């Protein structure tokens, strides 16, 4: 009986709201559903009405209506750094005061009643960063107590854009925002007070939540609140798949420098390593994300590794060619008869070919000496590059360019 009287009171509120309507037939819109038109009694003359009413926001005097929001984050999954998207599962608990729904608990001793959400005013929410939103319950029900306090629970799954900071990938840490806007009201009518609760119990993820916070931006034309998820990469997969193969190829190239320059297998060994790394580098470029600013340091690191392998291979080819040319000159000497005459003449005169042989021998030793010096310099360069990269990876910072919507003089978000 009490619920019937409460519904009659709601119908009376709808009848009195028609006096303030100024537009054609409209219905309240929510972020997850469009409301059907109000159901009027069959004996009521619709042609007599100039408009069909919309449920109005509760009046809170000169102050905006305060809606308390609790955001329960139950899961974060499918973090895609190539598409800059993240999927999450949330539960919203919204509560506010609507004195129009209050009743005398002494006459009607009921602790609470449950009403369909389309029979009373509810804030329509839209997620600014969302690519899609799946509201789990298309017909949620609100709970009302005798004082007029309303509680509404909304469960949703959404995929949103996230500006990942990937400079230190795979040890990156990023803040992903979910901005909830109530476009059907103004900041003078509605105000949010938000809190966040981390209810994630599973840690079997590549990205884990390290922090969770909420804020209410000030001086906004539209009432809104923002949930910030701080995601951190556990890095194990990227280290095994990217860093370990790269370091192994670089170590194999350094060990290849220990092979004698005269060995024919050294060139084949170096060329094979270079071709293998080129294949690895091509797949690596597709696996790493790209950005307009603050690209991952790994992109530059693996490019430096490629240049080191190219320089090492070119050094081996050039010095091996120099050594082979010296060997050909050493093998090409005078004819046997001429060598016999010079042998008879060698007893009475100093041998003029001795300096030539020493020069040829010095040519061979020069190529080997240059190879030895290059090997030492190459090892020092490789070790220094590793220390430099480690230092940059741990302490380097990069500030991304401002978004076009926030940059000046492009404009910015509208504010009061």
From TrEMBL:
Keywords from the UniProt entry: Cell membrane, Disulfide bond, Glycoprotein, Ion channel, Ion transport, Ligand-gated ion channel, Membrane, Receptor, Signal, Transmembrane, Transmembrane helix, Transport, Zinc
GO function term, MF aspect, one: extracellular ligand-gated monoatomic ion channel activity
Catalysis performed (reactions): K(+)(in) = K(+)(out); Na(+)(in) = Na(+)(out)
SUPFAM superfamilies registered for this protein in UniProt: Neurotransmitter-gated ion-channel transmembrane pore, Nicotinic receptor ligand binding domain-like
Domain Neurotransmitter-gated ion-channel transmembrane: 259-327
UniProt-annotated stretches for the region Disordered: 331-362
InterPro entries reported in the protein's UniProt record: Neur_chan_lig-bd, Neur_chan_lig-bd_sf, Neur_channel, Neuro-gated_channel_TM_sf, Neuro_actylchol_rec, Neurotrans-gated_channel_TM, Neurotransmitter_ion_chnl_CS
Chief location: membrane
Transmembrane residue ranges: 238-259, 271-288, 300-324, 373-396
Neurotransmitter-gated ion-channel ligand-binding domain location: 57-205
Function: Ligand-gated cation channel that allows the movement of sodium and potassium monoatomic cations across cell membranes when activated by zinc (Zn2+), copper (Cu2+), and changes in pH. Could also transport cesium.
Family: Belongs to the ligand-gated ion channel (TC 1.A.9) family.
Protein name: Ligand-gated cation channel ZACN
